[in-house]
Amino acid sequence: MRLRDLPNVISALRLVAVIPVVWLLLSQQFGWALVLFAVAGVSDGVDGFLAKNYGWQSRLGGILDPVADKTLLVICFLVLGSMGLIPVWLVLAVIFRDLVIVAGALLYNYRVEELEAAPTLTSKINTLFQLVLVVAAITDAGPMPLPGWVITTLTWACLVTILVSGVQYVLVWSAKARTHGWRDE
């Protein structure tokens, strides 16, 4: 292994960490699940820092990093939703938004032009709210009960940013597709 591969190794380990996080959640070992989720979050910052500051970016890393992040987040939403710790309707909204974005990105990439993916500010805010909600739900279920308004507020903040960012992606990329036109088959 070369040093420049370290960000990819860290991303791959974050992807593998999904399995023990799920097991810890389902075993109701919320404190340990929170610790491992936090370590995964820190590892995201570390691999990004290494890739950007040392020029160790790669095409694999550009795919692996967001896949690891999204997998961990969506799986945690699914598990927490199945346990009744966050509303199922919010889990469905998260999944539906992601499916719309992925389907739109694939369509754009193959029918219009190569996609240069860049998250919008609203999307980054949505991801932040989703992360904070996962941490709050795990914290509330185990190590430290939180006031009810915390989870409720985060739930609604997630829903609003899910809707706004989802609509924003559809509008922006639809306009770009109209401007560039469809590729010939």
What's the rounded overall pLDDT mean?
Answer: 92
Largest sheet: none
Structural class: mainly alpha
Total of helices: 7
* Helix residue percentage: over 70%
Strand content: under 5%
What is the helix/strand order? HHHHHHH
Molecular shape: globular
User: In whole angstroms, how far apart are the ends?
Assistant: 41 Å
Uncertain spans:
none
Rg: 18 Å
Count of β-strands: 0
How would you describe this structure in keywords?
mainly alpha, 7 helices
Can you put this structure into words, describing what you see?
The protein has helices at residues 6-16, 18-26, 30-54, 59-82, 88-111, 121-141, 148-180. The protein is mostly helical and 185 residues long. Helix 1 (6-16) packs antiparallel against helix 3, helix 2 runs parallel beside helix 4 (59-82) and helix 5 runs parallel beside helix 7. The longest helix has 33 residues, at 148-180. The mean pLDDT is 92.
Q: What is the topological layout?
A:
Elements: H1 6-16, H2 18-26, H3 30-54, H4 59-82, H5 88-111, H6 121-141, H7 148-180
Helix pairs in contact: 1-3, 1-4, 2-3, 2-4, 3-4, 3-6, 4-5, 4-6, 5-7, 6-7
